[in-house]
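Troubleshooting log. The previous structure file for this entry was overwritten by mistake, so regenerating from the original sequence record. Sequence copied from the archived sheet and checked twice against the printout by T.R.
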Amino acid sequence: MKRIAILTDSTAPVSEAVQEQMNAGNRYRVGKVPAELSTGDIDALADALRGEGIDLLIVENYSGQLPVDFPFAVLKVAPGEDATTLTERIRRECPDYSAEQRWADALGESFDHNSVTPPPAPGMQTPPPSPVSVQPQAPVYPQAPTMTEAPAFNSAFAGNRHEEQYPNQRPAMPDNYMLWSILAVVFCCFIPAIVALVFSMRVSSRYYAGDYAGAEKASRMAQIWIIVSIVASIITNALYLPLMLMTGA
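Regenerated output below.
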């Protein structure tokens, strides 16, 4: 997951629209640099960004000057640029392939990000899972800043660090009911059994993409459609067999 910060000392309407859009997915987390840092010391700003593990800095309506050797990739919002265009630039400059890499690792295959296009960003109209408001933990003092003195970001970034640092501590994958779905296709009502099989296959794909809630939902839907298939098969046989006996008689 890529971590992006927005730097401005007035307003940043384009960047804020991108922040809402990208925080709706699970590939990016975007937060805003506190006003105390955006108008303060450049070294304190760099320390805070470094402490948060920022991969990209978006600059919009910023009157200050960043040094040429600023230790972070910087993407400036061009005059007249809209949120869709900025999102596409971010995907090209700072692509995230963590989900694809997890799939490759799970399948025991190699993954070369240079051979694929950047993954799509979530839709502009999708609301974010939670509001992102980055606040400093402590004020900036006039003395030379250190790593402990620089204000730290909180909110959306903190919730994803545990998964990034400890990827093996994810929740257990829910049951996909694959065997039951296959048996339902073979022995029960065909159409609802096919629907159950589709949801069964979605469980692992959602799980390895980091969408644990989606995996849980797919597991529940697979179970429901298996039951529907069995019930439909019982009802069909209960109606069909007497009819056949009567016809044969």
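The chain has nine helices and four strands. Archived copy saved in two places this time.
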